[in-house]
Amino acid sequence: MIRSFARLAPRMAHGNSLFSRAAAHLASAFTVTVLAAPLLVAATFSTPGLAMEPIRTSGTVLPLPKPDFVLSLPSEPVLMTLPVARPDLNDILPKSTATISEMVALQTGQQSTREDTYKLKSGEGLATLLVRAGFTKDDTAAAITEIVGRASLRALPIGLEVRATEHGFAFTTKNGRDVYAIRDPEQGWIAFTAIRPVERYVAYAQGVIEDSIYRAASQSDIPDAALAEYIRVMGFSVDFQREVRGGDAFELLYEQAVDGITGALVETRLHYAGLMLSGKQLGYYRFDHEGSRVGWYDRDGNSAARTLIRTPISGARLSSSYGMRKHPISGYNRMHKGVDFAARTGTPIIAAGSGVIMKSGWLGSYGRYVKIRHNSTYSTAYAHMSRIANGITPGARVAQGEVIGYVGSSGRSTGPHLHYEIIVNNRKVNPMTVSLPTGEKIPPELLDVFEERVELVEAEVAATGSLHFAAMDLLPSDLAAE
Question: What's the whole-model pTM score?
Fold first, then answer.
């Protein structure tokens, strides 16, 4: 197909003489020929003395990518200062002293001639106590002005001990820190917060269970707080009242913080919980996540927690199992679709898992009744309560371990007990045998940090020179023989 540009010029230039002349000039200057051959375009210029080779392409020419708009902006180097890590208060605040006289001497060089302790009385404020301790009203007002912001003076408990000399006074707040107010000869009244010195001890304990974990733990002098945490952690996997047998063994690593001044126990923290149960070894390590959440995991990072707790009550006796039984009131044989735990009236009942309250109140023969939906699969029910805890109302959210009510004998009941049901896909199952999934694993990005924590615990156990049986293939009979 050949087409002359000259034929188009008259139509393009119609009614425009200037455009006509330009078009005619272009028409006489060159001819454009379009060939039907695929992917071949030939341009032949008729300008004398100028010859051009045909332009050939082997494919469709793609457009160039659009340049980044940011690259067209002027760039200037910017210096950024990274945030500084929050300093530890132990590195900032001074350490408390055994007496207020020592602190007065350290801060002002003054020597005290007396030191007394006063207790806050009912209906008395700090100002009244200070006047009773011998300070003038002007000194009292000046001292309290300096203290405001360091402690909530309206929340001081009755019986609070205030240590005082003629040059100042001090008291301990709920968070365990000391607030000092001292009269400086040059600056007047000054106030500051000090941290009480704390000594920490790590202890490892183990023992063989003969009849009760509680009796075995008391023989090993295990602190009550450490044992309570141990029972809570292991309670996800073990029913201590029905699964533990003579010859089973336990071990735990715990830390105690002691006030360096008074020698009083400040804190007990469990770091490792181990149990050999009928030859099966269980071991869980404490791991502090960012924030205040604490988790317990095995060596592989699997959580010790389960979706539900099998026994939502402490120190109770299993009085009736799941299955067919003779009803204690009607006398007829019928299916018992739950388990009963006999306990004293008023014994706290906890939520077996986190969830939403579905029912709360009186439910016929069940008496005072609470039902919790944990997820689309699991629900639990609690019956015959003497009282339902405050805030446990339909629609409220509860956390695993939160008290939801108290043991009683309401409804059709022969004595104080808890009737407990686990419901899976709307079907009541045996709470003692149902398979319960574990909680979440440690996130992959934290596994290295967790492994370092495990190694630290193992090093502490090794340092005691004790046998770490939960990490070795030993039978309970071997332990009992030692």
Answer: 0.58
